[in-house]
Design brief:
The protein is of the alpha/beta class.
Length: 184
Amino acid sequence: MAQTVVVYFSGYGHTQRIAEAVAEGAQAQLLRIDSDGGLPQHGWDLLAAADAIIFGAPTYMGSAPWQFKKFADASSKAWFTRAWQDKVFGGFSVSASLNGDKQVTLIGMQTLASQHGGIWVSLGVPPANTLAATRSDVNNLGGSVGLLVQAPSDAGADAIPEGDVQTARGYGARVTGIAQRFKS
Ligand SMILES: Cc1cc2nc3c(=O)[nH]c(=O)nc-3n(C[C@H](O)[C@H](O)[C@H](O)COP(=O)(O)O)c2cc1C
């Protein structure tokens, strides 16, 4: 079985909930970036050993929070040794607005994965964008590069629409499934 790690930052718990849903689908280990932008002691070893790495962050002011950027910059050590070369990568971002410029955060993650020589996994699900579509549908936000999630600004993580949570589980499963195909 391919080993996937979901490495994420969450300021107020919304991205944490989605990281858990992605990890459930991916049968992955969770690795939280702390409020200082650091990883726990074993964090870098866990990432080095992974077959697949999924990045997660909320969108703050139109891009990833500085804590995620600190982690990304610190990953230059792995870049120097090509430690993440040919791993499978995915990414997700949570924000309050339906759009909210989440795509900018996602493209940053895709670029980070590409700098490391990784293989990026798209969302792989068509958009639910018909008149009959609702927020309970899978991929109702119409993402393609990776996973997009909306969390209402005045509510906790429990208020994230079920369609987004389901999309998160499905995306996690897709990333690990693809990593498994590369492994076998
Ligand atoms: C400093 C800051 C900046 C934010 N900027 C945006 C933004 O650009 N677009 C948006 O839609 N939401 C924005 N939000 C809302 C967050 O993306 C949203 O509340 C998200 O669910 C927070 O995730 P977290 O609880 O994991 O930190 C911002 C929130 C904060 C605190």
